Amino acid sequence: MNGQIDRRHFLKATSAWLAMGAMGSRMAFAEGSNLRLIFWGSQTRAQVTNAAADLYAKREGGSVQSEFLSWNDYWPKLATQTAGGNAPDVLQMDYRYIVEYASRQAIAPLDEFIGDALNLGQFDKDQLAGGSVGGKLYGISLGANSCATMINTDAFQEAGIAVPTNALTYDGLHDIGAAFKKANIRGGMRAIADTSGLEPVLENWLRQRGKALYTADGKLAFDADDIVQWFKLWTELRDAGICVTAEDQALDTGSLETSMLVTGKAAMFPANSNQLVALQALVKDKLALCGYPRVAATTGGGHYRKPAMLFSVAGSSKQKAAAAKFISFFVSDPDAAKLLGTERGIPCSAAAREAIAATLNENSRMALDFVTNLGDLLGPIPPSPPKAAGEIELSVLRTLSQEVAFGTKTPEKAGPEFVALANDLLSRG
Question: Which of 94, 172, 394, 401 is an S-S bond match for 197, by CB 3.0 to 4.6 Å?
Answer without folding.
Answer: 401
